[in-house]
Design brief:
Strand content of chain A: 25-35%
Helix content of chain B: 55-70%
Structural class of chain B: mainly alpha
Strand content of chain B: under 5%
Number of strands of chain A: 10
Distance between the termini of chain A: 21 Å
Helix content of chain A: 25-40%
Distance between the termini of chain B: 34 Å
Shape of chain A: globular
Radius of gyration of chain A: 17 Å
Oligomer: heterodimer
Shape of chain B: globular
Order of helices and strands of chain B: HHHHHHHHHHHHHHHHHHHHHEEHHEEH
Largest interface: A-B, 39 and 42 residues
Number of strands of chain B: 4
């Protein structure tokens, strides 16, 4: 369960989150829509503990983020374009990231890469990956260690039609496994096909969509 | 033409242009910086001599040798780095052909670099015209000066404006050379930190090389500002500078051909496919090799950081630069040991007899540190940039995340210094060095093998590197700017070295960074007893033990402070796009 109550965030005089209050029930896919610069990414960063709110609080699984825990436990994250080491393979990059907080074997990592469609490119240098392949690798690093909470900001960016279908199927599978997913997308079809609830962000104000 | 003018406008309307003007102005001002009167009462200070005197002194004793390459690349020297990293180049090439795109930007880069130098010079000339006294009336003196100088009649009062024009024109030509060289380096590796360091290093090394091969008078730094006794007639100087300009143009054209040419691209692709085929199996086997028990622990996270920081790309320059300095330092004696070579490269020997601001010595010292500066810049910009989005939340806290980066930076400094010493060791053994120890005269007057001086050298150099790396790390974190971090590495060292050159040996302990100058320590300058007063006066005021402990304390204190600095910065709130 994610509970956000009366969160405000300012950058100088600009208020990017205005009194945001919302609850996300576990085991569902929650959609977030809104124009560019409306504050979607900022809200995600507040939930994952990257940004601390000026007032209000965020609780994930009952723990207050920034106070009781710095970051939510068991979280997978894809926000903006995560950086990788371009001189190393996709597999090696995943190995490096996995060693920080999980104990995954090489075969498990190869399976995750296969799941996101990078099985054949696992040993290729990330510097040679296309935009879509990097997005898939970003998704793979978010999925490592079977997180209970998945925050995905525009995960379909740069993916081809088949890739979009594959990722949609994967998200449905994760939801069936009880994973809570927060999803931001500009594509109404993704939201319509995947999400159990949808909220709209507009100039820092969050409101539920019918 | 419109494209060129638009680029020129871009070149002269950015912060880099202003910084270049300020740097040029400071180079002109440099000779006055020791005189407090120049700021407190400029009218009295500059009124004491005429325009021609102040102009010549400022020109001859300024530090244009270092400043011109840096100033020239600041306005538009990094255009290719910016346009490739932002992918603006794709938009631009969709609207014009490659040749027009490259030639327009290169011409604008060269011209805006020259315009920055021109603007800085004009401001200083205007300042002198407003404040300095009337032209000297001692006609006999000026005539004698003119007759004994290669500048001849141009130094006479009625013609001095020709000398001023000619001098500024020489600076502008040099600025164009270095702006073009910056374009070339940008094409080889579009990375701002690399270009910054490479242009600076190239300016120092090219001078050393040309000086050794073709004579000191043909160095570009001498052609742009002629040293006493190394004057070259005006027409010859311009001709040789034009040759440098042509060389820079060829270099940048070749580098751009390597990046954009179809042939090199195809050859490179073929080589990569070949290498991929050969190495694929090896790379597949080469994993992170971390024991499963270590994963998801603090040690595991540290090992991942170390693996990310200690890449071949960041360690390779550390192997190459000391060798270039070793071979550009003149002839190696017939009998030498590895220790002699280490002392030659790492002890700061160009500083031993410095009596005036020795710009070349400072520049060589800065080049020696440049691999570490560059490696730190690359590592930190990656870790504080986009990679932060996939690593930060895998740590228990931001503090733990940052502590890992600080430890990895320290480990990288250690590894880089190790590689630097190792590369000179290997070169020494290949060249036929006799052993490692140096032979020095002891207190009893006997010459014996000495190894402790080499340990002191290694430790002093390592701690110096650590101190500067941690300063770079702290500033990079606080400002989020790779350039500011690089300046935090370079500036304290260069300012201290320039100050140091102004200090005679007994007082050289007063300059902080001087602690690291082994060449001026008690090891090389034993105490001298003055017969007049009968009191011992050390030639050098730096006891090595004190220097070592001082540097160690600095490094340890900075490290502890640096690990806590992240509390002042909201890392996650920065714009983290790589």
């Amino acid at each position: 369960m994610i509970e956000i109550s009366r969160v405000n965030k300012f950058y100088g005089k600009q208020q990017v989150l205005k009194d945001v209050s919302v609850s996300f029930r576990p085991g569902l896919i929650h959609g977030l829509v809104g124009r560019n610069g409306s504050g979607k990414t900022q809200l995600f960063k507040v939930i994952c503990g990257f940004v601390l709110p000026d007032s209000g609080e965020v609780r994930v699984e009952g723990r207050r983020i920034g106070r009781e825990r710095r970051f939510p436990q068991s979280m997978g994250l894809l926000i903006e374009s995560p950086g990788f080491l371009p001189g190393y393979s996709g597999l090696f990059n995943l190995q490096m990231l996995a060693a920080m907080n999980t104990r995954l074997s090489k075969s498990e990592l190869l399976a995750i890469l296969g799941q996101v469609g990078l099985g054949e490119a696992a040993h290729r240098k990330v510097g040679k990956y296309s935009l879509g392949m990097r997005q898939r690798l970003g998704l793979a690093q978010a999925l490592m260690g079977r997180p209970r909470l998945l925050i995905l900001d525009e995960p379909f960016n740069g993916l081809d039609k088949r890739g979009v279908e594959e990722v949609r199927g994967m998200l449905r599978g994760l939801k069936a496994d009880g994973v809570t997913i927060l999803l931001a997308s500009h594509n109404p079809e993704d939201i319509r096909l995947l999400c159990d609830s949808v909220d709209e962000m507009d100039a820092g104000l969050l409101s539920p969509m019918a | 033409m419109r494209n060129f003018l638009r680029q020129l406008q871009r070149g002269v309307s950015n912060g880099g242009f202003l910084a270049a003007v300020a740097l040029t102005l400071y180079s002109w001002w440099f000779v006055n910086s020791n005189a407090s009167l120049s700021l407190s009462d400029p009218r009295a200070y500059f009124g004491s001599g005429d325009f021609s005197y102040h102009f010549r002194v400022s020109l001859e004793l300024g530090f244009f040798h270092t400043a011109i390459p840096l100033a020239a690349m600041l306005p538009l020297g990094f255009w290719l780095c910016e346009e490739i990293s932002t992918r603006y180049i794709d938009l631009a090439l969709g609207r014009q052909n490659l040749r027009g795109y490259l030639s327009g930007r290169m011409a604008a880069a060269a011209l805006s670099g020259a315009l920055a130098v021109l603007a800085g010079s004009l401001i200083y000339i205007l300042w002198l015209l407003l404040l300095s006294g009337p032209a000297s009336t001692d006609e006999a003196l000026t005539r004698m000066l003119a007759e004994h100088s290669v500048h001849g009649w141009r130094l006479l009062p009625g013609y001095f404006h020709v000398y001023v024009t000619e001098s500024v024109a020489r600076l502008l030509l040099s600025a164009m050379v270095w702006a073009l060289v910056a374009c070339g380096f940008s094409a080889l590796w579009p990375n701002k930190a690399f270009v910054f360091v490479a242009v600076f290093a190239a300016s120092v090394l090219l001078d050393a090389l040309v000086g050794a091969l073709f004579g000191q008078e043909n160095r570009l730094s001498n052609l742009q500002v002629q040293s006493r006794g190394l004057e070259v007639p005006l027409n010859l100087a311009f001709l040789r500078q034009t040759l440098y300009l042509l060389g820079a143009l060829l270099f940048s054209a070749f580098a751009l051909f390597l990046r954009f040419g179809k042939g090199p691209k195809r050859a490179w692709q073929r080589a990569r496919h070949w290498a991929a085929g050969r190495l694929a199996g090896g790379r597949a086997r080469l994993g992170l090799m971390l024991p499963r028990a270590v994963c998801a622990t603090g040690l595991g996270r540290l090992m991942v950081d170390l693996r990310a920081f200690l890449s071949v790309k960041t360690l390779l320059p550390a192997a190459i630069v000391p060798l270039i300095l070793l071979f550009s330092g003149g002839a190696v004696p017939l009998r030498f040991s590895v220790g002699d070579l280490w002392l030659r490269v790492f002890s700061g020997l160009p500083w031993v007899e410095a009596t005036w601001a020795d710009v070349q010595g400072t520049a060589l010292w800065a080049v020696l540190f440049s691999p570490v500066l560059l490696g730190n810049a690359l590592n930190l910009s990656r870790e504080l940039g986009g990679r932060c989005l996939s690593t930060l939340h895998r740590h228990p806290s931001v503090l733990a995340w940052w502590r890992g980066k600080c430890l990895a930076t320290a480990a990288y400094s250690l590894a880089a210094v190790g590689v630097m010493f190792l590369s000179v060791l290997v070169a020494g053994l290949v060249m036929g060095a006799r052993g490692v120890a140096v032979y020095r005269q002891g207190a009893e007057g006997f010459v014996s093998a000495n190894i402790s001086v080499l340990w002191a050298l290694f430790c002093v150099f390592l701690f110096q590197t650590l101190v500067l790396s941690l300063m770079q790390t702290a500033v990079h974190l606080l400002t989020g700017s790779m350039q500011a971090g690089a300046l935090a590495f370079l500036l304290p060292m260069m300012v201290c070295l320039l100050l140091y050159a102004d200090f005679d040996r007994p007082r050289n302990g007063e300059v902080l960074f001087n602690w690291g100058m082994l060449a001026r320590s008690e090891l090389f300058s034993p105490a001298l007893e003055l017969t007049g007063e009968g009191e011992p006066l050390p030639l050098a005021a730096v006891p090595v033990q004190k220097a070592l402990w001082g540097l160690f304390a600095w490094a340890a204190g900075l490290f502890l402070a640096c690990t806590q600095l992240v509390r002042l910065v909201r890392v996650g709130e920065r714009d983290l796009r790589a």
